[in-house]
Every structure is written in structure tokens, then in C-alpha cells.
Amino acid sequence: SMADTTVYRASTTAPVNIAVVKYWGKRDPKLNLPTNSSLSVTLSQADLRTLTTASCAAAFGGDSLTLNGELSDISGARTQACFRELRARRAALEAADPSLPKLSAMGLKLVSENNFPTAAGLASSAAGFAALVQAIANLYELPDTPAQLSIVARQGSGSACRSLFGGYVAWRMGDKEDGSDSMADLVAPASHWPNMRALILVVSAAKKGVSSTSGMQQTVATSGLFQQRIANIVPANMATMEEAIQRRDFAKFAEVTMRESNSFHACCADTYPPIFYMNDISKAAIRAVESINAKAGKTIAAYTFDAGPNCVVYYLDEEAPTVLGAFSGVLGGVTGWKEGSAGVKSSVRL
Ligand code: 2P0
After folding, report:
1. What is the 24 CA–ligand 1 centroid distance (Å)?
2. Among residues 154, 159, 168, 209, which one has the fewest Cβ atoms lying within 10 Å of its Cβ?
3. Which tens digits make up the pLDDT trace of 223-279?
4. Stretch 119-137: mean pLDDT, rounded?
5. Which residue among 17, 21, 23 has the greatest number of ligand 1 atoms within 8 angstroms of its CB, and so is best to mutate?
6. In angstroms, what is the span from residue 160 Cα to ligand 1's centroid?
7. pLDDT digits (tens, 9 = 90+) for 22-48
8. CA distance 92 to 13
9. What ipTM, to 2 d.p.?
10. Quick check: 123 pLDDT over 70?
11. How many other CB atoms are there within 10 angstroms of residue 86's CB atom?
12. Is 155 within 8 Å of 125 (Cβ atoms)?
């Protein structure tokens, strides 16, 4: 028969997510199984997303990934696990239906681009692995649901499993050893709370000193406070946060968000030797949010920080003049900022 010279191709985008209940700690580092559940808000794809095109052809030699125009290393165990899982699913379809082209035997070519400065260190691995997995799943025409694909994305990077959905997303830790129940689910779509906004304060564009993977391993191994966090604090915060989102209770949402950020960074400080992600400008941002809330006489803004010094502030659109106005003056050290939303509206100022 004639050789198949077709190039098969599919594209997709995946959003950045910012956790309000933090993932920090693995019970199984190989499968990226977490020590606790977590919950995130997906940011608007208008400003923060990864666009990935996956293609395959019989003539392609091996697999490759180009990220922002540069060839990327794909030999790592996590990327290989994603490729292997997706190929196995495709191979099962091909075995069941011999008329399907044998895409599982072809080399994969992935081309990926972020529409935000990768240097700013804004959760790019979450959007990156989510887009990679979704693009290949589209190329292979897999019948898997987003929840099922989140199990694959999780093996690339834990937080990536939450970027398979928009809106408010929970990653349920699960308790199975093979990770088959450690997946994401939708708590509420973005449209449930359309006036939610996120302001991203780019405090530093420098690469972080301690990677999340190694930082959380050190915390698990050495922090006593962390044991209290996973046993009691996170389960209570997950329940309160889900209820706050269902009721659109911003004050409660904000309090849990800030307490969670503080709890996570306290566990980093309790790690031995300690890990510090926030700098003096980050701490000034916390004071600025406290001052905004004190002046308003109610909680209208919430800060959160991940494994770096950059600050994300959640607020409601009706409070935009107050919140944005307060930030434009106080933070001299902030190099840029980005206004995004959990829903549609957003604008860039970097
Ligand atoms: C989160 N972070 O929930 C937390 C809060 C950082 C602080 O998920 O090792 O890059 O790839 O599973 O997902 C960062 O950790 O770690 C992270 P890996 P990941 O968003």
C-alpha cells in the first residue's frame, strides 16, 4: 500500500491558574501525587495562556518540543510520562479500529507559545503541560474527559491538572496508590462569579531560587508545621473556600486566600534550612492590601503568593477604582502589572 504522507495536526490553548488553596507537598514524587487537595482560579486566556500545536507524520523521526521559538528538552521523566500515557490511549483506539491511521507509531512535533512574558515566572508550567496534553489528545481524537486528561497533565506538573478547566477548579488529592483518583474537577465555571478580577504585580522577573519540586520535598521532609497544615488546615480551608465560591462570598473567599498564602509561606519558613520566596516588595504588597481593606472597612482585596515574589490580588470589578488606584501609587519597586480576570475582561500593562 501507499505510504501515508499526511501531516496530522491539532491546536489548543490552556490557561494559567493561580491557587487560592495551595498545593505544596508530594506523597509520591514520581506520579506527582499530592499530600493535600488544592483549589485554583483560572485566569483569562485573553492575557495568560499557552498555545500549543501538536502534529505527527510518518516522516517525523523522533519527538520534539519548541517553546517560544527554542527547542526544549523533552527527555525528562514527566514529559515522557505524558507522551507514553497519551500514546497508549491512542494505540488502544487503533487496536479497536484498524481503519484508523497509526498515529501512535509516528513522531510527535509540538510547538508551544506563551502570550505572556515567560520570564515573569507566572505559573507557566501549569498552562504548558495542560496545553501539551490537550493538544495531543485532540490530535489523537481521544474520547477522554477533561478530568481524565487531568490525570495525565498532573504527571507533567502537579498544578497543570487544574488548567484543564476554566473557572474555579479543585484538585482532589485522592487516596489510591496508582493516582487514578488524583484529578481535577470543576467547582464553578467563571460565569458563576463574572465580576471576579485578578491583578498581577510583577515584583521580579528573575527565575526563582528554589524550584517548587525541590522546595516542597524539603518541606515534607523537615517541617513540623507542615504536618498540621495537611492534617487540619487545608481540609478546613478547602471546605470553607468551596462554600465561599458557591455563595459568592468575597470576604470569606479573600480571608481563606490570604490565610492559605500565609500558611504555605510559613511552612516554607519552617522548612530546615528555611525557604523564602517573598521579598521586601512582596511584603509591601501585603501591607498595601491590608491598608486597602482597613480604609474600606471591609475586605475588598486578597493577596496570594506562589513559589516566587510576584503578587496576585483578587478583587471584584466594582472595587476596581479603589484597588487599582491604591496600587498605582504605593509600589515603586513593581516592574509591571497585569490585570486579568477569572472570566472575560482583562487588560495588559507590563
Ligand atoms: C499551587 N504551587 O498550588 C502551588 C502553590 C506553588 C505554590 O503548584 O513539582 O510547578 O511540577 O508538581 O505544580 C507549583 O508546583 O510543581 C505549585 P510540580 P508545580 O499552584
Report:
1. 7
2. 209
3. 999 999 999 999 999 999 999 999 999 999 999 999 999 999 999 999 999 999 999
4. 86
5. 23
6. 8
7. 999 999 999 999 999 999 999 888 778
8. 26
9. 0.98
10. no
11. 24
12. no
Q: What is the model's pTM?
A: 0.94
Q: In angstroms, rounded to a whole number, what is the distance separating the alpha carbons of residues 114 and 268?
A: 29
Which residue's entry shows cell 495525565? 152
* CB-based contact 213:20 (threshold 8 Å): no
The residue contributing the CA closest to ligand 1 atom 8 is 159
CA of 125 to the centre of ligand 1 (A): 9
Ligand 1 centroid distance, CA of 60 (Å): 33
